[in-house]
Specification:
single chain; about 500 residues; alpha+beta; 8-stranded mixed beta sheet
């Protein structure tokens, strides 16, 4: 982690732009995939949270943002409200399939074609970074920043109101649970029953109970009209006594019966910096990845190399960070290893960030393709998010990466509801139900229906963007005055527009 005086951590990136088209991994268009990219040498979890909330996503240390109105298959950031999630019938079928295999050892016949996973994002990068060398940032640079930053534009009333609003209203805050979250570095077993339905809303009532209540009320009215006072009217059903929907955690626990011929465990290991358990299981994890890429994505044997595996799924710019109000396992990059009878059969690559668990990638042993492990892992990761939320109330979302409506096989991520898509122009979250009709008519859409709405973090002053030049941190306004040669203002302006004013003032942009 790049640190300066006062032990403050900084994100450091190199921006690559994105003028050339590359092969699309979804529609196979040879030059239709357009995206902006930057290499992140190091990144704080808060900066990455803010970037993915502006449509960025990482592949190893390469961070990219699709050019939404130009790329062949627009990719919209999607998040699920983990606390409000209820499994659908298809999700319950997946859990029953797992249960049948665990309890009876029977694998379903055939393969499951209903859950294609994201392809490796290497068609548009990652490009190699410059050799910056050790980041020995001069302490005097801190003084330079304070003295030379231009005046910040006056804060508008709308911005003040937004800052005073606090956390989003759709983040349900619950009390902290004093118990450990099931998911610390050596955790095994299924998630414990916990959250269930949104506790802030009235309990859901079954149609059967409502019909029974109406029938009793009708009988009571009939008896009163007949003047039969000797019959005691039944007590109406108390809504609180009716059955609530079974929480996801209960379904998961039921899918892992005791005294079964097989045992499925989920183990969380930190991948950056690599924990001892991650190092010890590295080869076994890589072998599963190689088999997956060859069987599912039809890669030739030499493509899923160990170096590609490290670069794509093990390397991460996110460091190990902890916060007093954060989860006990901390923030950063992890692998969730699925062990069947002690053997790794699948791995979920995730990032734990201040307000979400972000899914990076998932792969599994091809022998178990018929178990719908992709869907199962998403359910486990939603349950894991709910567990972390008990320790960190604002951590309440599960990010599934990108939703690609123009590619029918990639619409499966919209099945985890309630969920939102990110508006590519205002960066506001909009319910997926409101977005689908627009995407049916056009590949690219502005979801925010307010024509007056704008990006709340729009760039206002490029001179305030921070740059790292000759191991000294300075605002871009200072750097541009010292710079010799052709101007790079257009490139810096483009970069700062894409990351937004707040991130531009925190992230260090490397200048050679």
């Amino acid at each position: 982690m790049l640190k300066m005086a006062g032990s403050k951590s900084y994100t450091m990136v190199e921006y690559f732009g994105g003028d050339s088209g590359y092969r699309c991994g979804y529609c196979k268009n040879d030059e239709g995939n357009f995206s902006h990219g930057m290499w992140s040498h190091t990144m704080t979890v808060q900066d990455y949270q803010d970037l993915i909330d502006r449509g960025w996503r990482r592949s190893g240390k390469y961070v990219y943002k699709p050019k939404m109105n130009k790329t062949c298959c627009p990719q919209y950031t999607i998040r699920c409200h983990a606390l409000k999630f209820q499994p659908s019938k298809s999700h319950k079928k997946v859990l029953k399939k797992i249960s049948k295999f665990i309890s009876k050892g029977e694998l379903p016949k055939g393969t499951d074609d209903g859950e294609p996973m994201d392809s490796v994002c290497d068609q548009a990068g990652p490009r190699e970074p410059s050799s910056v060398g050790p980041f020995k940032v001069q302490r005097a640079a801190i003084t330079d920043i304070q003295n030379e930053l231009p005046e910040r534009p006056a804060t508008t009333q709308a911005e003040k109101a937004e800052a005073a609003d606090g956390p989003p209203t759709d983040c349900v805050t619950l009390r902290k649970d004093p118990e450990h979250v099931a998911g610390e570095p050596t955790t095994a077993g299924a998630p414990r029953a916990g959250m269930g339905a949104d506790p802030g809303r009235p309990p859901c009532r079954k149609a059967k109970d409502l019909r029974k209540e109406r029938r009793l009320q009708k009988e009571q009215n009939r008896q009163q009209s007949e003047g039969d006072a000797s019959i005691v009217s039944p007590t109406p059903l108390n809504p609180a006594q009716t059955t609530q929907p079974k929480p996801l955690e209960d379904f998961i626990n039921e899918s892992l019966p005791d005294n079964s011929p097989h045992r499925l465990e989920v183990r969380l290991v930190r991948s950056n910096p690599p924990s001892p358990q991650f190092k010890a299981s590295f080869d076994a994890s890589y072998q599963v990845y190689k088999l997956y890429q060859m069987a599912i994505h039809k890669d030739p044997p030499d493509k899923p190399s160990e170096s590609q595996f490290r670069r794509f799924l093990c390397d991460s710019p996110l460091e190990d960070e902890h916060s007093p109000d954060g989860p006990e396992v901390g923030y950063g990059s992890f692998h969730q290893q699925y062990l069947l009878d002690g053997r790794i059969v699948a791995v979920g690559v995730i990032d734990i960030l201040p307000t979400c668990v972000s899914s990076v990638y998932f792969y599994y042993h091809p022998d178990f393709a018929s178990l719908s492990l992709g869907s199962y892992s998403a359910l486990r990761e939603i349950a894991f998010t709910r567990q972390l939320q008990k320790q960190s109330p604002k951590l309440s979302f599960y990010y599934l990466g990108f939703y690609i409506h123009s590619c029918p096989k990639m619409r499966y991520k919209g099945q985890y509801r309630p969920s939102d898509l990110l508006c590519p122009e205002t960066y506001a979250w909009v319910s997926i139900e409101q977005c689908i009709p627009q995407l049916e008519n056009s590949r690219y859409a502005r979801f925010n229906q307010d024509p007056e709405a704008e990006d709340s973090r729009v760039l206002k002053e490029v001179g305030r963007a921070l740059v790292l030049h000759r191991r000294t941190v300075m605002p871009y306004a200072t750097y541009s005055r010292k710079r010799k040669g052709s101007s790079d203002e257009a490139e810096v302006q483009q970069y700062a527009d894409l990351v937004g004013q707040d991130c531009a003032e925190r992230i260090l942009l490397y200048r050679a």
